[in-house]
Amino acid sequence: MNLNAYSFNFDEMFGKYHKKVFFTLRKWGAEYEEAEECAQEIFVKILKNYHTYDPTKGSEAAWVFSIARNVCIDLFRKNNKYSALQSIQNLDSSGWLSTDSEEQKRDQKWVQEILVKRIKELPEPEKSIVILRFFKECTAEEVGKTIGVSVRTVSRKTISALTILKMQLKRDGLNEEALKGGLL
Question: What is the mean pLDDT of the chain?
């Protein structure tokens, strides 16, 4: 990347994103001290890797929160702590089942496993938006603040992601009846 094209000012970036990162970490399930530790690690990583940021590939906020997500996953993995953030990385369908018959549960579990697989395949920020909107039940405004995009962008990306997911699930052999009552 051409450093002349992007003027890096760590103090400015820290001031701009520290509170957002910290509160996002808390929202993802980090205890206060963990959020402080993780935020420090995130900004150290940003300082060491600012030269890799390319504004033509995405917003500064998306880059910061991508680093935040990865650092937090590492921290939670290191601490063997199951958290909301870990569930973002390791989506599974456990706990979703609410039907009575074993056959219905098996079928629903199969559909949910396919859905989880397809969500994991979505590009960023669509994947994070879907997870935050539908699994963490965040509002579009909360998602926008978390990943550093406008509410309008969240709405557009949500529609785009759901359209992609619906097409992929249909290709996987799932019809509208199988998808009823779910995310799509």
Answer: 75
